[in-house]
Each structure stands twice: as C-alpha cells, then as structure tokens.
C-alpha cells in the first residue's frame, strides 16, 4: 500500500471537495438572488442541500486530517475506517436522493404522469438504504480488508443503483422533452440544449459511479474508490444549481424581447390552425413590430426546472 494511491487520493479529493463547495456556495447565493418567485419549500430544500454539502465537506476534511496528521506516524491506521469517512458516504448519498427527488417532482409537474417516477424514486431510495448500511457496517468492521471480504456486495449494489438513477432521470427527461417538440425552430433548439445538458451530466456522474465500482473491485486496498465516490454528490448538486440559475438565460434565449398581448385579441388568423390545435402547444407571446403589427408567435418554453411550461411573468392586459 503506497502513499500515492492512499493519502494522495485522499488529498486530491479534499482539494476538489473544497473547490466544489465554494462553487456550490456561490451558486446557492446566485439562486436566492435570481429566484425570488420560487416557493418556500424549494428555497428551504436548496438551503438544506447547501448545509448537507457543508457537512459532507467537513466530514471528509476530518477524515483527511485523521489520515494525514493524526495517524501519519501509524501506517496501520490507514487500514481502518474513521467515523467521519463512514458518515461522509451517508451524507453524500442523502444529497443525491434529495436531488433525484427534486428532478422526479419536476418531471411529474412537467408530464402529470406518475409511472416514470418509479424508475427514479425506487433505485434512489434503495441506493440511500445501501449507503446507510455501508456506513453502519464500516463502523463495526475493524478494517477495510474485512469489509471488502464480507460486504463488498453492498458497495457494488449502492453505486450501481446510483448510476441507474442518473441514467433513468436523463432517459425520462429526454423522452418527455422530445415528445414536446413543436416544430418551431427556437423552441426545438432549446429542447436540444436541455437534452444535451442532461445527457452530459448523466454521462459524467454515472461514469464516476461505475469507476468507483471498478476501482473498488480491482484496487480495494487503496482510497481511489472512495475519492471518486466523494466527488459524485458534489457534481450532482452543482449541476442542479447550474440548471436552476440558468432558467432566466434560457428563457431569454428562447423568447427574446417580447411584449405581453392576449392572443385572443389578435384573432385566429395569427395562429395557424395546425399549431393552435396541437396538443400541449399554446401560443402565449407575440413579438411586436415597429408599426404595432405582430411578426411571429412564440411557443411556450419547456422548463423542467419549474416543472411545467414556462409562463410569462409580466402582467397580462
């Protein structure tokens, strides 16, 4: 057991965790500044996630201090799991299940159907149970070698379920967005942007979960597997915050400068019959030309972070 893949891996993950927590703190501040209209429950949930992320960082920092300072003169201490490292895993998985539930709720608001949530909530809850079990088993097992021999299945199952949950969120979200395509170039371009963002996030987090499984199976006597596992919840939280904070930008990219006009006041000649009767499509905004005549009709923006079609915030005449 060398220091490069034990203490080295711990320190690299510590640096990344500190940077990630700093980014999450800035994004949390930005969220409260940009999202005054979000409900109290959502605002409290984001605050709770930020607190949990701080605890996650604190637990891992304590474990890092334990390995690199407190027990640095006792190489045998590298074979046992300190309490803070065990709690770090449970806290990280709690962050993951809350983020998954937020996406599940938004998907429900977006689709008004419950069946897709089975593929998100069930594996996410099972993964959290697995993380709690790993925490309890690690605290009562004398060293990492015994844990790997007796309970390695718990690690494989927990992180396999995490990877499945990430992929399920992306698959359900992408499917719902695809069937909401309207044929309007700007709206479809926004839908493609949301799908690409979701796929990229899933590819990163699920790949790290799989990497943690592989490194634990092939290198159970170093800390690379745990360093990778520490990164996953922080990436998920920052991805959620980035999506919430980009809502205004995406809305502006889609709608441009608009004025609020009741579509009923313009008459049916402004909306082609094939569009106005299409299911799930409702014209809500109209660009105004210099002489006061409408130039084109914009479809509603699909906003999965709000959980439904994005509606204009302006006062309607």
Automatic annotation (TrEMBL):
Superkingdom, natural source: Eukaryota
Annotated segments matching region Disordered: 298-317
Membrane-traversing stretches: 6-24, 44-63, 83-105, 117-139, 159-179, 191-217, 223-244
Pfam families: DUF6534 (PF20152)
Domain DUF6534: residue ranges: 163-248
This protein's UniProt keywords: Membrane, Transmembrane, Transmembrane helix
UniProt name for this protein: DUF6534 domain-containing protein
